[in-house]
Amino acid sequence: MTAVRVAVIGADGRMGSTVCAAVEGADDLELVERLDAGDDVAALAGSGAQVAVDFTVPSVTEANVHALIDAGVHAVVGTTGWTEESLARVREHLAEAGATREQGLGVLIAPNFALSAVLAMSFARRAARFFESAEVVELHHPDKVDAPSGTAVTTARHIAEGRAEAGLGPVPDATESQVDGARGAIIDGVHVHAVRLRGLVAHEEILLGNPGEQLTIRTDSFDRTSFMPGVLLAVREVVHRPGLTFGLDQVLDLG
Ligand SMILES: NC(=O)c1ccc[n+]([C@@H]2O[C@H](COP(=O)([O-])OP(=O)(O)OC[C@H]3O[C@@H](n4cnc5c(N)ncnc54)[C@H](O)[C@@H]3O)[C@@H](O)[C@H]2O)c1
Ligand SMILES: O=C(O)C1=N[C@H](C(=O)O)CCC1
Q1: What mean pLDDT do residues 147-164 have?
Q2: CA nearest 193: which of 220, 155, 246?
Q3: Are 119 and 218 in a shared domain?
Q4: CB-based contact 233:248 (threshold 8 Å)
Q5: Residue range of the domain that includes 97
Q6: Do 124 and 97 belong to one domain?
Q7: Active-site residues (predicted)?
Q8: Ligand 2 pocket mutation pick from 112, 136, 223 by most atoms within 8 angstroms of CB
Q9: Is the pLDDT reported for residue 255 higher than 70?
């Protein structure tokens, strides 16, 4: 068995260092490069790396992915901050690169690699059509630079899709006046609230309400090792998935 050669970008960070350890602990993977701020992603072209894992910061991750496509390296991305527009640019770049390759390159971007979070997002989408009200509360460590979390943004979008498919209108909300931000950010009509608290890692509660009842879906990552099985699965899968894959639910076939 030949090991898949893996590079990690953001290797000195909380996630990147955990990914390096997970790759080093896997018999079928080989850690060949550790890059962090100041290193040239384009140089991976001649490094022998087949897959690069990006856990950096929202402001640089898209440029890293374009550089990886140009370098002919598959990408697994956990960094947040992706929009419909930035995803479309990656899709387009991959299509151009694929036209000149025998087997197209793969980019797999997932806002959350923890199985509990992937399932929570999937359950929320399925449950959304049955409830009048839906709100998302995400809770993270205070060193996180973006809010709301990428997971919460994706969860809100899933809920909005489920509601729209069922023909549900806006969530009920009689608020006429508020202190700025009191009702959270509104993403596709769903209110999203962000808590930052020392001691936390990554947590989310999805609240779904009807007259007289509530469904709460909660996911907790108590440790960054929770993300590693999903990251390693993505590394193994991306080489067989040309084009852009968004969300680990696609790999797990959750729909
Ligand atoms: N998808 C998931 O499952 C998941 C899980 C946890 C965190 N995240 C996301 O991953 C990202 C990183 O989180 P973190 O807690 O590891 O952050 P962190 O701040 O600990 O690490 C980021 C690292 O990226 C490096 N970096 C910055 N600019 C760079 C550049 N241009 N090139 C290379 N490296 C660069 C920094 O020096 C740092 O070492 C965030 O967007 C976070 O939301 C995603
Ligand atoms: O610690 C972080 O930062 C996390 N970021 C992701 C997000 O924004 O959804 C996933 C959870 C951890």
Answers
A1: 98
A2: 155
A3: yes
A4: yes
A5: 4-109+225-251
A6: no
A7: 140 (proton donor/acceptor), 144 (proton donor)
A8: 112
A9: no
Residue 48 assigned as binding residue: no
Residue 78 annotated in ligand binding:
yes
Residue 157 has pLDDT above 90, yes or no: yes
Exactly one of 93, 140, 158, 191 is catalytic; name it. Answer: 140
| Residue 1 pLDDT class (50, 70, 90 cuts) | confident
The answer to whether residue 103 scores a pLDDT higher than 80 is no
Q: What share of the chain in percent tops pLDDT 70?
A: 98
Task: Tell me whether residue 39 is annotated as binding.
Answer: yes
Average per-residue pLDDT in the chain? Answer: 96
Q: Is 154 in the pocket of ligand 1 (CB under 6 A)?
A: no
Q: How far is it, in rounded angstroms, from Cα 36 to Cα 11?
A: 6
Q: Over range 228-252, report the average pLDDT.
A: 97
Residues 229, 104 within the same domain: yes
The CA-atom distances, in angstroms, between 199 and each of 71, 115, 202, 255 are 39, 21, 10, 33
Query: Number of structural domains, the chain?
Result: 2
Residue minimizing CA distance to atom 2 of ligand 2: 144
Active-site annotation holds for 74? no
Is 144 a known active-site residue?
A: yes
